């Protein structure tokens, strides 16, 4: 099956929050299908540096870069290495950065990438090319470690039952395809009232584990924030609670709203560092009802943004 066109979630809201201006430098940390980057370039006569760990995404971006000579530069690598990638390219400071976290439609809809239980394909799930595949993980990890992965990264309540079933089956035959794994999961987890496929949370967990996504996000937020010039903005769109929790806590700490002081020890308030950022979103911005209806993948999205204060 050919992958469908990627539909960038909350593109207009994210770019409006980023507020691109002429002659400024911006980072699109998750290039994907280039939807955010294209909108930023159209909004102002600025320069965009884009990063993606997926070589297919970088290749797709060649035409967009050619259409904006000197204004778009695409780098292949992990967002957790953005400081090194940008510094090596001569970029020392940013006027804004945006991240659209998670997996792209190109990756989900391409059966050969193995991200989705809806299309039978090899059990891969790698966003890049150097990670261990999902098949290698499933066929080698211990039952307890597998249960931990499913519970921690998928918030799957039936993690132990699923892990037990997977270990029992792989003793007879190794897992190779997405349909095979999804079938085993569905054999032990019944559909609930939400209508969500029983394999959803487990596939999310395996994808996160294979690509070490949460550690990548935490490192990328720190590095991007450090590179922002005064007035620079950091905009992040997340898609599940694990991602959003990392973003929410990081933003709160950067804005001086982390729960570091106790009301029973007011003296500690004097030791709090001066905030370097201000929140632009009091709570998460969510997609409009129209967008959620038009693009079901947008339903769980949350946008948060903050701005660096003057030094």
In short:
By secondary structure, the protein is an alpha/beta fold. The chain has helices at residues 11-18, 35-43, 55-60, 62-67, 82-88, 105-109, 134-140, 143-154, 159-170, 178-188, 200-211, 213-227, 241-254, 289-294; strands at residues 25-28, 47-52, 72-76, 94-100, 228-238, 277-279, 302-308.
Please describe what this structure looks like.
A 7-stranded mixed β-sheet has the order 3-2-1-4-5-7-6, sandwiched between helices. It folds into 2 domains: 11-106 and 213-308, 3-Layer(aba) Sandwich (Rossmann fold), CATH 3.40.50.150; 132-211, DNA polymerase, domain 1 (Orthogonal Bundle), CATH 1.10.150. The radius of gyration is 21 Å and the shape is globular. It has helices at residues 11-18, 35-43, 55-60, 62-67, 82-88, 105-109, 134-140, 143-154, 159-170, 178-188, 200-211, 213-227, 241-254, 289-294; strands spanning 25-28, 47-52, 72-76, 94-100, 228-238, 277-279, 302-308. With 311 residues, the protein is an alpha/beta fold. α9 (159-170) packs across α10.
Strand content: 5-15%
List the total number of helices: 14
Largest sheet: 7 strands, mixed
Number of DSSP-assigned strands:
7
Number of domains: 2
Query: CATH top level of the largest domain?
Result: Alpha Beta
Fourth-tier CATH superfamily name of the largest domain: Vaccinia Virus protein VP39
Strand numbers in spatial order across the main sheet: 3-2-1-4-5-7-6
- The CATH topology of the largest domain is given as Rossmann fold
Decide which structural class fits the backbone: alpha/beta
Shape: globular
**Helix coverage percent:** 40-55%
Give average pLDDT, whole number: 89
CATH architecture of the largest domain: 3-Layer(aba) Sandwich
Q: Roughly how many Å is the radius of gyration? A: 21 Å
* Element order: H for helix, E for strand: HEHEHHEHEHHHHHHHEHEHE
N/C terminus separation: 52 Å
Q: Spans with pLDDT under 50 lasting ≥5 residues?
A: 260-270
